[in-house]
Specification:
7% strand; 4 helices; two-stranded antiparallel ribbon; elongated; mainly alpha; 2 strands
Length: 123
């Protein structure tokens, strides 16, 4: 019985490169955008309005939601990085640990939870 080799010489498909780079860059950029409060836009659900960048809540617009803006900017950044990642040589891509795709979100979760604790504890 033969065991599968961990060092493959098969070429990495372009989508595999894209997905790997996108997954890693998306999580890192989301974490940065959330902690720096850099949304692409702000959504005000009470009025159904959208404004560019970070806008605070006002009596006229109601609460401000940044999550949509963070997600949008991270999709854009991740997509650009993913397309650039398809240009990487296979030897570079094979050195990027696949575990980062699932490990980074797991590591980011406690940090994101810590960031929202003040919102959960103020009644």
């Amino acid at each position: 019985m033969t065991t599968p080799s961990t060092n493959s010489t098969a070429p990495v498909p372009a989508f595999g490169k894209f997905a790997l780079v996108f997954g890693i860059v998306f999580v890192i950029s989301y974490w940065v955008c959330a902690f720096k409060s850099w949304p692409l836009f702000t959504y005000h659900p009470a009025t159904g309005t959208i404004g560019w960048g970070r806008q605070g809540a006002t009596p006229d617009t109601g609460p401000a939601m940044y999550w949509y803006g963070w997600t949008a900017i991270c999709i854009i950044v991740g997509t650009i990085a993913g397309f650039l990642g398809t240009l990487l040589p296979d030897s570079v891509v094979k050195r990027i640990p696949l575990a980062l795709v699932w490990l980074l979100p797991l590591l980011a979760f406690p940090l994101m939870l810590y960031a929202v604790i003040p919102l959960l504890t103020h009644g």
